[in-house]
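Posting this for the archive.
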Amino acid sequence: MREILGRRLQRLRNRLQSLRPAPPQGDAAAHLDAALDCAATWQWPVLPAVGRSGADGARCACPNPDCVVPGAHPFDPGLLAATTDPRMVAWWWANRPGASVLLATGGSAPCAVSLPAAAAARAVVRLDAQGMRLGPIVATPTRWSLLVAPYSLERLGELLYAKDHVPSSLRFHGEGGYLLLPPSAAIGGGQVRWEREPGGADGSGAAAGELWLPEVEAVVDALVEASSGASGGGSRLAY
């Protein structure tokens, strides 16, 4: 199955290159490949992020001058346009080469739970020691996001209601949300990367329907404990 998908992706890339003045190079090619892989191989709905503007590239290209996630959120197209159609994905990145890759979370797509990087690293060690099977993990210099099986807002509300305390640094990327994927530029500098890739350490060996995603309840207890033990009680938000 992966060989068939790989051949289809290569045909799409070849077609895209024939339509453009020059083939994508460097970061642009990496972003296109990542978006196509997410959409066609894993069946994750993706879309390009808004991007940045200004001479130094520090300002968000959206109309909000005080945007707190510059270049790293949906705008045009909007979040509802996210798709798994490789042709649409190829067209987007042909017109916006190098755009960051956004996963539209929820529905049938993965959701995620994120927390500051140091606390997340401790939590992952704890979960591994307990023998818990984890799924893909997205990492930035400041935060890690553990991908989990899709959950509803109602289910999340019931889960959090049962907790005595949930640190404000713990974030949930569920239905109607989004998550920045590798190899996008991270907010505040650095790059988004895979701490654990989909399908295994080398990113292979599993079809979309076989990708392992733990249930959100299975990881929240350890994440709450790890985040609560962070400096400042885990109350500081860090992007």
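Strands lie at 46-48, 52-53, 59-60, 101-105, 111-116, 137-139, 143-148, 171-173, 177-181, 193-196. Confidence is low (pLDDT under 50) at residues 18-24, 201-205, 232-239.
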